[in-house]
Design a protein that fits this description.
Radius of gyration: 29 Å
Structural class: alpha+beta
Helix content: 25-40%
Oligomer: single chain
Number of helices: 12
């Protein structure tokens, strides 16, 4: 109990100190971030596959569980070796401090303070509580009273139960109060950033997206919405704490190889430029076949190619010396994109808006990159603050260092949205429907197969643009029994979606999506 309370106090005090500095300096967040960086790609991929967007919560709960077990062990150790137990708490503080100051987004050595101050408080509390467990001498008990009290009274020794209970209860209450205040302050942090987002008024785009065709969205129950609402849009990143960046102080720096005119832009600078508005479907490389990490939104932003051209950047095909654009986030993430792709005429942009409103914090406010046709890990830098032009030979970004591909165009994929796996529909005519995507190429055909039967061409909804997914449907005369439904797509280049299964690592999953149903 002493060890557990000491651990609780250490975390509570650390949370309060972190609230006075910045939430990212919290030891749980710092150690969690370091754990993410050190996790082998297959394990990270497994976590995303099984826990989805809750993977960060699971990681933090896992860290807390490990800390709880270690705190209990230190409590047991401190009963026999009081100073050693307290020193063990300080050791964990050193680990947390080292993790905090070594993070890519660390701003100074002050990031170590939450871990240091928290574990000092925990070590002192453990020392005091264990002191209450020390055997104390009691006054001799008269023989008649001893006989009534029992043999145990003859020992003349015991421990300060009342003192321990009072100290433990006080420590628990104080730690809970401190932790609650710290959590409350951390939750309310970034008020300037929140206010700056509320004050953003996106100008009318100079180049608006065309209206979505009426027949682009099929009226089939269970099919994905053509436009994914912001709250439902997938989020996959390494940030345990969502950065809250103040748009009034935000700056973007463009520099590096072949940049003849390095520049720095404010958020207002971007707002004053001509904005474009485009419907673009994004996909995460961690998306399994048939997975949910794909979404379609209407993005508003500044053409990235125009910004680069203003800085004197030329694409490799025009003699430019840089073939890689490295974007850096405020949290230290680095993402490498092919310069040729962002300057080849596609609607690559620095996005400021999403579905008619300023970017949500979870999706990169104030500014993020969007590049049609590329997986997010090589294009979609959120909370961007720096763009450096370099080469693939001279620099490996975050994911490349961990075994992922340098270049990763989105593969041609399709998914069955309805019926759901293991559904039990009634016999008769029913609709099989879903979505298919091959960004920057477009979808030309979708086919569905029942069991081992022939492929049947599905009805395609109207195409919005080649950079968006496309809905499809096919009627099926369902007969009783178990059936396997399989889908495949053909893109505009004539390439048919491969049936060869591949893992997400290193450049995206592949294979046909199938669902098994039992018709009753």
């Amino acid at each position: 109990m002493s060890g557990g309370l000491a651990g609780f106090a250490a975390l509570a005090v650390a949370e309060l100190v972190a609230a006075g500095l910045r939430p990212q300096s919290s030891p749980v967040i710092a150690v969690g971030g370091a754990s993410i960086d050190a996790t082998p790609p297959p394990v990270k991929d497994w976590a995303i596959r099984h826990f989805g967007t809750d993977d960060k919560l699971v990681l933090q709960l896992g860290i807390l569980a490990v800390l709880a077990v270690l705190a209990l062990a230190l409590g047991v150790l401190a009963v026999r070796f009081r100073r050693v137990g307290a020193a063990g708490v300080l050791l964990f503080g050193a680990v947390g401090a080292a993790a905090a100051v070594s993070r890519p987004d660390s701003i100074s050595l002050t990031d170590a303070l939450p871990s240091v101050v928290g574990t000092v408080a925990g070590a002192l509390l453990l020392y005091v509580l264990v002191g209450r467990l020390t055997v104390v001498r009691r006054a001799p008990v008269p023989e008649p009273a001893a006989e009534e009290a029992g043999a145990g009274a003859h020992a003349g020794q015991g421990w300060d139960r009342r003192g321990f209970v009072l100290a433990a209860a006080s420590a628990a209450a104080a730690s809970a109060a401190v932790g609650a205040v710290g959590r409350s302050l951390n939750a309310s942090s970034g008020q300037d950033a929140i206010a700056s987002r509320k004050n953003v008024v996106l100008p009318d785009p100079g180049s608006s997206a065309r209206p979505v065709p009426k027949r682009a969205a099929l009226r089939v129950p269970g099919i994905s919405a053509f436009v994914t609402p912001n709250d439902d849009f997938y989020r996959v990143d390494t940030a345990l704490v969502v950065p809250k960046v103040d748009a009034t102080t935000w700056r973007l720096r463009i520099h590096g190889k072949g940049v003849r005119r390095p520049a720095s832009y404010s958020f207002d600078d971007l707002l004053r430029r001509e904005l474009i508005e485009r419907d673009i479907t994004l996909a995460c490389v961690s998306n399994e076949v048939g997975g949910a990490y794909v979404g379609n939104a209407r993005w508003t932003g500044v053409r990235l190619a125009d910004l680069l051209a203003d800085c004197g950047v030329k694409s490799p095909s025009r003699g430019g010396p840089a073939d890689q654009l490295v974007s850096r986030s405020v949290d230290g993430m680095t993402i490498g994109s092919p310069v040729e792709d962002v300057m080849d005429g596609r609607d690559a942009m620095l996005a400021l808006g999403m579905n008619g409103e300023p970017l949500p914090f979870e999706h990169g406010f104030p500014v993020r990159m969007v590049v049609p046709g590329l997986y997010g890990f090589v294009s979609a830098c959120k909370w961007i603050e720096d763009i450096e032009l370099t080469t693939f030979d001279s620099y490996d970004p975050y994911w490349v260092k961990r075994g992922w591909a340098r270049r990763a165009p989105i593969k041609t994929e399709s998914r069955i949205d309805t019926p759901k796996p293991f559904a039990r529909p009634k016999a008769g005519t029913m609709m099989v429907a879903g979505v298919a995507w091959a960004q920057h190429r477009g979808i030309d055909k979708v086919e569905v197969r029942v069991d081992d039967g022939p492929w049947q061409e599905a009805h395609l909804a109207a195409e919005d643009t080649r950079d968006t997914w496309r809905q499809w449907s096919v009627p099926w005369q369902a007969t009783e029994g178990g059936h396997t439904l399989t889908v495949r797509a053909t893109d505009r280049t004539g390439a048919v979606q491969t049936d060869k299964r591949a893992r997400t690592i290193p450049d995206g999953a592949s294979g046909w999506h199938s669902v098994v149903v039992t018709v009753e």
